[in-house]
Amino acid sequence: MSQPFLLIERDGPVVIATLNRPEERNAISETAYSEEIADFCAKMTRDRSVRAVVLTGAGKSFCAGGNIKHMSEKTGMFAGTPYELRNSYRTGIQLIPAALYELEVPVVAAVNGAAIGAGLDLACMCDVRIASEKAVFAESFVKLGIVPGDGGAWLLPRIIGMARASLLTLTGDTIDAAKALEYGLVAEVVAPDQVMPRALEVAHSIAVNPGHATRMAKRLLREGQDMKLAPLLELSAAYQALAHHTHDHSEAVAAFVEKRPAAFTDK
């Protein structure tokens, strides 16, 4: 039996998920990889004790996107007729953006190296991105005569704006970590040996808060990308009503008044 694509570790309320194909630069080359990521997201949403996730890549790359060798050979997820390919995308790699979008737990990407093509889009599916000084980024699909097939055309403009997203998408050019920070693509750039420590620090600073609050706040941020203000206010009111009646809200208020650390129980 082959090794799982995702290596899963637990650090208290934080789960670390590592793309574990360093010899392939963590390319998403099999439909099974996409299914594994989707299953992982569903499990994280169900587990109320998980308050944050860190996503990273093993070895020197974060994720190199699709497997170009398989593209050349038209094998695996790139095999078949146009109709079959369309279905392969819809039931394969497109599972990932759908799953990460619906994942309630906040996700911090520790971009330890190259994030290319679908790898860049994968980073964009996360909520916070911390990058190594050696990381590089490219929306490189056009360089191979294809288009972003995994939601990049929706994700990237929402993070860096349409003008810069158009520049990266239509040129396919690679940018370094400093340019990614200037564009707002990443939140921070740190030394290579500090990527995981900093990503974990951010994840734990999220996880110290009540899980119900961070999950619903993330959902509001997601829905707010496409909603008008009025329906978002309605959704916010409904979520706030739920939040006010949680045990952890009462504990947070009591701890604040009593000037002591809060003890949250995910209830």
Report on the structure:
This protein is an alpha/beta fold. It folds into two domains: 6-207, Alpha-Beta Complex (2-enoyl-CoA Hydratase, Chain A, domain 1); 211-258. It has twelve helices and ten strands. The strands form two sheets. The protein has a six-stranded mixed beta sheet, sandwiched between helices. Strands 4-6-8-9 form a four-stranded mixed beta sheet. Helix 1 (31-46) packs parallel to helix 4 and helix 6 (152-160) packs across helix 7. It is globular and about 65 Å long.
Write the layout of secondary structure elements.
Elements: E1 6-11, E2 14-19, H1 31-46, E3 52-57, E4 61-63, H2 68-73, H3 82-91, H4 95-102, E5 107-111, E6 114-116, H5 118-124, E7 128-132, E8 136-138, H6 152-160, H7 162-171, E9 174-176, H8 177-183, E10 188-190, H9 195-207, H10 211-223, H11 229-244, H12 247-258
Parallel strand pairs: 2-3, 3-5, 4-6, 5-7, 6-8, 7-10
Antiparallel strand pairs: 1-2, 8-9
